[in-house]
Amino acid sequence: MTTSPIPDLDPTSRRRGAARELWRGVSGRLARSLARLHQTWRRSLQVRVVTITLVTSSLLVGGFAYLIADKITSILLDNAKTDVQLRLLNGAEYAAKQFSLYSQPQEAQLQETIDGTVNYLAGGDPQQNSGVVVALTADNWPGVIEARTSPSANVRPLISPELRAAVADGNVANQIRTGRLTGDAEAKYLVYGSPVPTRFGQVELYYFVPLTLQDTTAAQARATVVATGVALVLLLGLLAALVTRLVVIPVRVAARTAQRLSAGLLDQRMAVNGEDDLALLAASFNQMATNLQRQILRLEEMSRLQRRFTSDVSHELRTPLTTVRMAADLIFAERDEFDPAVARSAELLQAELDRFEELLTDLLEISRFDAGFAVLDAEPTDLVPVVHRVADRLAGLAERVGVAIELDVPTAPVIAEIDPRRVERVLRNLVGNAVEHGEGRPVRITLGMDETAVALTVRDHGVGLKPGEEKLVFNRFWRADPSRARQTGGTGLGLSISLEDARLHGGWLEAWGAPGQGAQFRLTLPARAGDRLTTSPLRLVPADATLPFGGAPAGGLLAIGPGPAGALAVGPAPDAVPPAEQPRAEVGS
Amino acid sequence: MRRRLLTGVLAGVLVLGVAAGCGIPDRSEVQIEQRGPAAETNWSLGRGTEPPTREASGSDAEAFVRNFLAAAAGEPDRAYERVKRFIATADRNGLPDKQGSEVALSVVRLTDDPVIEPDVDSMKVTISVQQVGLLRANGMLVPPVATESTYEFRLISAGPVGEDDAGYYVSDPPNVLLLSDDALRRYYQAEAIYFWNSDRTQLVPDQRYLSSAVPPQRRVSEVVRWLTAGPSDWLRIGVSGLPDRTEMINNATGSDGRWEVNLDMPGADERRLEQLGTQLAWSLRELHGTVEVKILNQSRKVIDLAEQRRLNPLDLIEVNARRYCVYEGAIHSLTVAGEAAGSVPVAPEVNHDIVSAGLRRVDADVLVAVVMAGEDGRQRLAVGRSGGVVETLTTGPSRYAEMSRPVWIRSDGARPTGLVVADGRLYRFDDQAATRQVQLSLPGRVTAVAPALDGHRLALIVDGTLHVAAINWEGGVPTVGPARRLVSSLTDATAVDWSAANRLLVAGSAGRPAIYDVTVDGALETPLREDTGSQVDHLAAYPATAERSPLAGSFMYEANGVAYRSNPFDRINRDQVQDVTPPPAGVRPGNPTAPVFLY
């Protein structure tokens, strides 16, 4: 498209530009209405059915109406023609007899006979011959024989040269012409011509029969046929609309009810009227809803009981545990005095008690989340110190396993309304996991922000995640290799709690991983508590990841969508879609 | 909303499609259906004779004048055009054109040869004429209006000076169309057409002139037009035309003996149509075949002309006419040239003192009217009727100094009536011989009377001039209508009789006593006997009719007391008189007089 901004003073080009603008406006409006139409077409079953009915019946009825009207017209016309032809041939015979008395066109009484013949053939009184005009012309004898018409009218314009030639050639011929003869208004005339043989040559007899009556009759018939056709089409459309409505309304009600059901309003039911198929549908639907409601309530109850059980068990365990702990602490403090084997047991006991305590804590935390007691304690917090703190705190562990923790943190403070305790816990969890699975390769923590959100990514280069594991990692007690013993202090609930923390903030916690390429976790939080997230300042898929299709084009965007077998499919974005509308592999929301 | 829009669009498309697809188009292609009727080739192309053109006479001035006087003959519509071809261009405007039925030709009889005198650069022509009548466009010859007895005009040469072959032009032409009687005879045919009498019991002939230029196929049209136009004026008193407002629609058409006449005829019932058929059959006497009469396009009657004529004979006339004469005061039969002799219808007892006799057959009877000479020299009428021989004659009460031969009029069932001229007045008489004077519309001394065979027309000689008049039979009594004077070249007419339906025999003087055959309108004259020696006192003819009779057209006359007959002209001798005793020797035998036909 030319967007040359060269200032051009040529009025034509300006006009062209204006026209283009106009065209653009019109086409835009047209495209919009077309799109709306298309949308309506796609959405409304009723519109589709009615439209198809209307189009089909219109075609059918129109075809029949055409045939009928055409037939009526041709019958009328044929009748008129037969009638006039008979009159014409009789007239020509009569005229031939009359003129057979004359052997020269100059004979004086011939003109008189022509007048008389024309008047006779016209039937005398012009009022009573319904506008029929009879004319006798003698094209072979101009100036000698005057053409006569009765009633007097100028018929020349109505005799076309072709008709005249045909009649002069000795044929009986006819033609329909429009013109004005006797009346004030133009009328259609059936012009019929026949040669009249005489002893001195040929003269021509013409009948001009007005087709007003036939025209009116044909128009009336046509109007009747059209009115009937239109009424029929409308009736069919109405019928189709009614029938569709009968079917569509219960379906719509069912759809709405289903929507409400899915929204959690489990006591929504459809009204059952009558005993027909739709009533059966409604009844079945209601039955299904009732069953679902019962199941869901049962499951909810079970889940509640389970959570309660967990919580209760955790609480109940804590009291004896405290006692056991105190005893164990005592034993641990005195271990040097024991037999080394006992001392080793005391150490083991201490370690397992730590884990047990940790597990109980996590379980209690989880059950708080489950019970909905978790409360966000948000305050504006600079995330940079939080990151540093977590890194420092895990530096020992990292050093032990030989993993370097790299930080990519802006120098400026990254302030967001967050619960620092929870965010730190999430970050600690992520970095701990990364260090744990880092396989000696560095772990990189990146902090990013924009106007609406802050994001943290934690990247490791461990074994990575198999396709589909991005979601599983957040499941409680999930492990990648169940046969692998838990060596480090994970409880199996860390990521679940982290996910709940992210949700509590209204943020996202997402994972990416590929076998052999490590994994990256991203935490995105709204800059202001309660805001809705739309984008993340950081990318989920790391830039150094090798993608199955060869990677994203330079500066291009990636599309991540559902792949086969529940896997994530990552590929180049099909178009320059704004990031907000980019399909996203969301984990939580 | 959108659905309604869609519906509207669909309905619109439907309406437009149907409306545009199948109305009567404003204009269609020319559709040729069949060959039109072609001209038939078997039409007779006969065409009548036309008068000669201007160039025909060459340098013969006399012939040119003759042709000029014939130029108007032909179809009346173009008469002016034909005459104007004879007239010099500069003078053509001097002859004002008339159109249609106003065209009338002045028929003149040249009383002398045209006088052609050379002048400075032209020739002066003087023609002396007798105005015979006015020939109207409808073929009727009416009494003349003009009174000129001479016309003068000039002839100028049509070519350069000295070249006479180019012919002439008429300069200073008369301001009327002249037609000589010679041209009338040559370029017209006198046609008899028939009208019904007032009682519609009898056909009465009338006369029209049909131009020879009219092709034969138009004859029927012309005749029907004449019939619808009604009878001649002088006949109107005794004759009725077709119903008022009767008109022919266009022309009568047909060929090969099948004709078709379309009429607009108010009150046309079966009887009227039958009568019209008879009228047509006799008016188209030489036509055979059929005429289909349509009334306002509805075929009403098909007339077989010959059959119609056969069923409705025109004049019931005795074919075997007999001649009689008065010989020595008695009626005697005459035989001429071997004709059979008839029996004398009067018994010998009363067959005496007879001066003249009128005999007529009515059905099986014979009517006899005789003029008897009384002892006092006065004459009176006696009448008798009998199926065989009249035994007694009823003598009338009145006596007259002089009576003409009595004649019977055909009266068709009414009381027999006759006419007789006595003492210069016309009287009618009945079967009781009572005479009553018949009022005439013109003063003058009546010298002769002759009724036509149809009984509705009279020929009269009043003051030596020939007249014709119609008879009205209302109430069974003959009334004579206005008389029409016939212009004749004969003067001092003395005797008249009908020689045919439309022809008269007139005896008069054309310098010398002569007998002429004249048409009933006086236009055409044929001298039959140029010189009868002396004045004809008495004339009796046997009229020529449709019935074939050996005597048809024969006549007998008496001049100077001597009877003559025609065919050939010969004197009737005493030995031709039957049943006479030869006179005693030495006595000069008398002459048969007052010859008469009994038919």
TrEMBL record, chain A:
Q: Which residues form the HAMP domain?
A: 245-297
Kindly give the membrane topology term recorded for this protein. Answer: Multi-pass membrane protein
Q: Gene3D superfamilies this protein is in? A: 1.10.287.130, 6.10.340.10, Histidine kinase-like ATPase, C-terminal domain
Entry-linked InterPro entries: HAMP_dom (IPR003660), HATPase_C_sf (IPR036890), HATPase_dom (IPR003594), His_kinase_dom (IPR005467), HisK_dim/P_dom (IPR003661), HisK_dim/P_sf (IPR036097), MtrAB_MtrB (IPR047669), Sig_transdc_His_kin-like_C (IPR004358)
**Domain of life here?**
Bacteria
In residue numbers, the region (Disordered) covers 570-589
* Catalytic reaction(s) noted: ATP + protein L-histidine = ADP + protein N-phospho-L-histidine
Localization, per the record, is:
Cell membrane
Q: Where exactly are the transmembrane stretches of this chain?
A: 49-69, 225-248
Per UniProt, the keywords (alphabetical) are: ATP-binding, Cell membrane, Kinase, Membrane, Nucleotide-binding, Phosphoprotein, Transferase, Transmembrane, Transmembrane helix, Two-component regulatory system
Q: Does the keyword ATP-binding apply?
A: yes
**What is the enzyme's main class?**
transferase
Could you say which EC number(s) this protein's record lists?
2.7.13.3
In terms of Pfam families, this protein maps to:
HAMP (PF00672), HATPase_c (PF02518), HisKA (PF00512)
GO: which molecular function terms? ATP binding; phosphorelay sensor kinase activity
May I have one GO cellular component term? plasma membrane
Q: Which segments constitute the Histidine kinase domain? A: 312-529
Name this polypeptide is given: Sensor histidine kinase MtrB
Q: Which organism is it from?
A: Micromonospora sediminimaris
TrEMBL record, chain B:
Identify the residues that the record assigns to the GerMN domain, covering every copy.
Answer: 220-306
User: Region labeled Disordered — which residues?
Assistant: 32-59, 580-599
- PROSITE patterns from the UniProt entry: PROKAR_LIPOPROTEIN
Annotated TM spans: none
Under the heading InterPro entries, the entry gives:
6-blade_b-propeller_TolB-like, GerMN, LpqB_C
Offer one Pfam family short name for this entry.
Gmad1
SUPFAM superfamilies xrefs:
3-carboxy-cis,cis-mucoante lactonizing enzyme (SSF75011)
Instruction: Quote the protein name from its UniProt record.
Output: GerMN domain-containing protein
Organism from which the protein derives: Micromonospora sediminimaris
